[in-house]
Fold this protein.
Amino acid sequence: MFQTILFNINQQKAYIQLNRPEVYNALNQTLLLELTEAIDICKNDENIRVVIISGGNGKAFCSGADLKSGLSNPNLGEVLKTTYNPLITGMRNLEKPIICKLNGIAAGAGMSLVLACDVIIADKTTYMSELFVGIGLLPDAGSMYFLPRMIGTLKAFELCSTGRKVFMEEAEQIGLINKAVEGDKLEEEVEKLANVYANSATRSIGLMKQILNKTFENDLEGVLNLEAEGQTKCGHSHDFAEGVMAFLQKREANFKGK
C-alpha cells in the first residue's frame, strides 16, 4: 500500500513508521504524501483512537528534507504549501492524540514533524536540531509556530537562529518534549501511554486538542466560549454517560471513543 512508510493498526492504535533508512528517513514528496494519507486514514477510521509515529530502527527519526529528491527547487514556498503544510495541518486537526516515539535524530523539517505531535517521548541519547540556518533557510513546517508556544520566544529564537543540537535531557527540562527515557525503555513507555489513550474518552481528548490549538489566538472570553461549545458536545456523547455511570457504580469506565 505504501512505499516509504510502514502502517498498521492494532487494538485501536495506529502505528506510522517512516521507512527510508538508507537516507535517514529524509522527507521526499512520496514520504510526505504518504504520511498525509496515513493521517487521513486515522481521521476517518473511528476504530483508531491513538496514533504512534516513529522513525523505525535506524539512527535517525527524520533527517529533514531530502535535498536530492527535487524538493530543493528555489520555489520552496510552493513546495511547502503542496506537501509539508497539508501534513502538519492534518496532524493538528486530527481529533485523536498523536504520540511521537522519538527513537533517533530529528533535524530540520524532521524536528517540525516531531513538534506537530501531541506527546513526545524520546530516547535520551538522541537530539533535535533546527538546522535550517546552516543552509541559509528559516525553519518551516510549523516549527516557528510550535516552538514559541512550547518554550517561549527567547529560547525559540536561540534554537532557530543557531541550529544547535538539543539533547533530550535538556529538551525535557525546557518543555520541548514530555519525557526522555533510556533507549531500552522507550517502547514500553510509549505503549503504556498509547494503551491509556486507546481506552480513554477520545471525543473529549479530540476537543481538548482543538481548543488548545486556539488558545493563543483567543482572549479569555473566546476560550470560555470554546470550552462551553466543546462541553455541550461532550455532554451528548456516549463516553460522558458511561463515565458518570461508572463513577456512580464505582467501576472502571468502558469508553467507546464516541
About this structure: Strands lie at 5-10, 13-18, 50-54, 60-62, 98-102, 105-107, 119-123, 127-129, 165-167, 179-181. The chain has ten helices and ten strands.
